[in-house]
């Protein structure tokens, strides 16, 4: 059907490339372009020889002119941005200049401070409308599938949605005492930041990891879950009319948090430079050097992830609770595409979003979040392309829901 330019060659990009090649009827030709071209070439070497024609290119995605030149020479129908959040705006500018649709998995971040806000990208709405182009934001798992799950619930399960709890559980075990699934600096910053959730039009801030619940997750069992801020809260709170509250929860084990606390207490997570044997170093950089490389965890991670939405609201005048989720197995992902479930659950929805934009089902001039489109073709594609979803119409009344009910009184 067409051509896609994939920007980035990291964990998520690798899954996107594998999935595009599996879906060669849609992705007839792809170009993998990143800062380090050898990583793009390695992917091409692994996957060449099938129906999808693979090209590679070197590009600095911070540079709009370089991007424009590359897009003009390859002529894609869509650009899939799976580089880093810092490149979102330069890539959107290049898409506008060349008349190409845009898809990403994470909102733009100014390099100095993490804000987790959509305002910079939403400001492009009119430009994309005028150009007749679609920009699809946040087509990963969370953000991404969690928004599609919400739209699915809105379309098929509820007349009014009142409460949403997104629960992201990773019960993967890599056998190390302590390691982070992705960049330790970003990971640690996320966990040590204040939590935040949306209630009745207001953002309510919590101390870091202040709110904890135990949730009994299907196929995983009871886990400690902690309230964090996550970027899809902003778009879902805006797009689901009548919503009263939305929160995001993530699992952390006692062991992980104890290690983190000790490292924090002794100063190892600090970014303040110190002198060490005649050299200035940031303790967190030293910590990063002694911790396992996140990319090396793939082959040794066992266990499953479970990410889903617990939704409460009204159907036919009656209160109702609905739970929709996906369970993904780290080892199965590794065997299929050479990456663990964290990259897999992001890369598959990125491919699906790009496919729906390319085939016209999700084409609409402007800048959109996933929950603003018809969820049906996306939900079907999840089942087909490796992230089947499950649902429960009468989940037990769990602590989370009891608390939500109490706080609504
Ligand atoms: P990685 O760090 O593994 O890969 C990032 C890639 O981007 C690398 O290949 C890197 O190149 C490349 N890159 C960075 N800067 C530039 C640049 N200026 N020009 C060209 N290429 C560049 O990250 P992941 O694959 O884990 O994550 C990719 C994206 O997915 C991120 O935006 C992340 O936030 C998002 N994500 C979204 C999730 C979701 O559920 N929505 C979940 C997980 C991730 P080099 O190899 O040279 O470093």
From TrEMBL:
Domain of life, source organism: Bacteria
All residue ranges annotated as the Saccharopine dehydrogenase NADP binding domain in the record: 5-136
One MF annotation (Gene Ontology) recorded for this entry: carboxynorspermidine dehydrogenase activity
Bilayer-spanning residue ranges: none
Saccharopine dehydrogenase-like C-terminal domain: residues covered: 140-386
Keyword rRNA-binding appears in the UniProt entry: no
Gene3D superfamilies from the UniProt entry: Dihydrodipicolinate Reductase, domain 2, NAD(P)-binding Rossmann-like Domain
Keyword set, alphabetical order: Oxidoreductase
Enzyme class per UniProt: oxidoreductase
EC number: 1.5.1.43
Name of the protein: Carboxynorspermidine synthase
Organism encoding this protein: Lysinibacillus sphaericus
Lineage, broadest ranks: Bacteria, Bacillati, Bacillota, Bacilli, Bacillales
């Amino acid at each position: 059907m067409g051509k896609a330019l994939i920007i980035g060659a990291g964990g998520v990009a690798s899954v996107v490339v594998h999935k595009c090649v599996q879906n060669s009827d849609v992705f007839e030709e792809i170009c993998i372009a990143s800062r380090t071209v050898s990583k793009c070439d390695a992917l091409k070497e692994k996957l060449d020889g099938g129906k999808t024609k693979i090209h590679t290119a070197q590009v600095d995605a911070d540079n709009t002119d370089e991007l424009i030149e590359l897009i003009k020479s390859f002529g894609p129908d869509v650009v899939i941005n799976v580089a880093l959040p810092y490149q979102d705006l330069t890539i959107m500018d290049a898409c506008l200049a060349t008349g190409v649709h845009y898809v990403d998995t994470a909102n733009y971040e100014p390099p100095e401070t993490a804000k987790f806000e959509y305002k910079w990208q939403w400001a492009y709405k009119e430009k994309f409308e005028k150009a007749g182009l679609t920009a699809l934001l946040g087509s990963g798992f969370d953000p991404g599938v969690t928004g599609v799950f919400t739209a699915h619930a809105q379309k098929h399960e509820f007349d009014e949605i009142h409460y949403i709890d997104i629960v992201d559980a990773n019960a993967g075990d890599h056998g190390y005492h302590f390691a982070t699934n992705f960049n330790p600096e970003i990971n640690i910053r996320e966990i040590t930041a204040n939590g935040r959730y949306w209630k009745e039009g207001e953002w309510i801030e919590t101390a870091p990891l202040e709110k904890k619940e135990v949730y009994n997750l299907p196929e995983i069992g009871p886990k400690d879950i902690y309230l964090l801020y996550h970027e899809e809260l902003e778009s879902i709170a805006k797009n689901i009319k009548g919503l009263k509250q939305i929160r995001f929860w993530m699992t952390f084990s006692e062991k992980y948090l104890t290690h983190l606390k000790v490292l924090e207490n002794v100063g190892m997570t600090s970014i303040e430079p110190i002198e060490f044997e005649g050299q200035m170093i940031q303790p967190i950089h030293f910590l990063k050097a002694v911790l396992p490389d996140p990319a090396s965890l793939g082959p040794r991670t066992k266990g499953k992830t479970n990410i889903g939405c617990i939704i409460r609201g009204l159907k036919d005048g009656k209160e109702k609770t609905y739970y929709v989720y996906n369970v993904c197995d780290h080892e199965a992902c590794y065997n299929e595409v050479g990456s663990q479930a964290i990259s897999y659950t992001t890369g598959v929805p990125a491919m699906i979003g790009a496919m729906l934009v390319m085939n016209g089902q999700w084409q609409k001039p402007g800048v959109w979040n996933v929950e603003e489109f018809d969820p049906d073709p996306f939900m079907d594609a999840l089942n087909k392309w490796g992230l089947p979803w499950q649902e429960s119409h009468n989940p037990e009344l769990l602590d989370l829901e009891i608390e939500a009910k109490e706080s609504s009184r």
